[in-house]
Design brief:
This protein is mainly α. It folds into two domains: about 1-50; about 75-170, no CATH class. It is built from seven helices and no strands. It has helices spanning about 1-50, 75-85, 90-100, 105-115, 125-135, 140-150, 155-170.
Amino acid sequence: MFIQNELDVEREKVTLLHQQDSQQTELLREHSAQLFELLRQQQATAIGSTCTRRPETLKIDISKYKGADEDSLLRWFVELDDVIRARHIVDEEMQIALAQSNLAGRAKTWALGLKLHDPYVFGSLEVFKSLLGQTFEPPRANLGLALNSYESSEVNVTYTRTFSTYVTLPVA
């Protein structure tokens, strides 16, 4: 009988320990859930405060530059710069890609031909514009000879002065 009493006492201890263990486990679960919720709220607050809104962009179309004689390269450059600013494009490669995607005809063939031989030929938008201008703008040395033949009329003299002023303006 003594052994039976000892065994019953030990069973009660085990049952009590098991109940205490279950209570502690439940307390740990509740505490973990509270900590998890607190952490989730802190992360949500941190993300909300550190995210900067991307500026809204405008969808502005740009005409295709074909490299034809009637196309105005300077006007196309102004359109291109306006679109780059409106769309907030700061990456140089993206600016060049936008410019190339708005070429057509001879100009597109020219650009693709250069890229075929050297994929990195256009290192910056300024290089792209410079090469495009050298290829498709009329040579400035011949411009003076061509304009001299028209000096007989007063209208053409005024036109020459006005045109020369625009040719010498720096491109931004």
